Amino acid sequence: MAIGFGAGRMFLVPGLLVRRSTTVMTLRFPVLFPLVFAVNVMVDPATMPPWLAAVVAPPSPT
Questions:
Q1: DSSP class of residue 46?
Q2: Which of 16, 15, 38, 9 has the alpha carbon at shortest distance from 27?
Q3: Mean predicted confidence (pLDDT) in 39-52
Q4: Can you tell me whether residue 42 is helix, strand or coil?
Q5: How far apart are CA 57 and CA 52, in angstroms?
Q6: 36: helix, coil or strand?
Q7: Who's near 28: CB < 8 A, 6+ residues apart?
Q8: Spans of all domains in the chain
Q9: Exposure pattern of 28-54 as b/e (b: 16+ CB <10 Å)?
Q10: Confidence at 1, pLDDT banded by 50, 70, 90
Q11: Measured between alpha carbons, how far is 1 from 13 in angstroms, rounded to an integer?
Q12: Of 21, 55, 50, 23, nearest to 38 (Cα)?
């Protein structure tokens, strides 16, 4: 929840500085889009493609 609150605040400043809301949405899309696919909260990594599972899986202790 703290991460979501922080991410929301990160886009608050540009939202106050620009005139159009679509500009803020355009600026935040490249930041948030990869995060949507790099989170394994909703999907089990075992069901992901191997390359994506390798990104979201925690590193194995050696």
A1: G
A2: 15
A3: 79
A4: coil
A5: 8
A6: helix
A7: 11, 14
A8: 2-56
A9: eeeeeeeeeeeebeeeeeeebeeeeee
A10: low
A11: 20
A12: 55
